Amino acid sequence: MTERTGHCLCGAVSFKLTAEPLATRICWCRDCQHLASNGTVNLLVPTEALAISGTLSDYIKIADSGNEITRQFCPSCGTHLFAKSSGRPQFRVVRVGNLDAPSSIQPHMNIWASSAPTWACLDVALERVEQQPLPPKPSPAQ
């Protein structure tokens, strides 16, 4: 495993990943479209594999599932960095664009594809999931 690092736009928040992603995907849900005016490229890691330095601001919203979704931002520059769900506390979502080496990640699926705008460029080589995919299965080592 190669450690990955990243930071927000202004550098006030930095982070380190100490595990390989459990999933990498492009999300087309309406919330991600509001955040990025497009789909967002995300990776999913075990919660304990994400080390954060700096102060975060939270925005909490109840999802259609009833789960509490917490999105975390840099309070200085507003960069959206992370998300977590009360329904899956063992995982953290990391926005790939904030990695120091974003090309070290290759998305494997488009999720919430049913919400993508008609002009969205969805790579047909990637798995297509119309809404929320099932959570990844834990590896035998976990």
From TrEMBL:
GO molecular function per UniProt: carbon-sulfur lyase activity; metal ion binding
Record's keyword annotation contains Metal-binding: yes
Occurrences of domain CENP-V/GFA (ranges): 4-120
A Pfam family per the record: GFA
This protein's UniProt keywords: Lyase, Metal-binding, Zinc
InterPro entries, alphabetized: CENP-V/GFA (IPR006913), Mss4-like_sf (IPR011057)
Family, similarity comment: Belongs to the Gfa family.
Stated name of the protein: Aldehyde-activating protein
Origin species: Stenotrophobium rhamnosiphilum
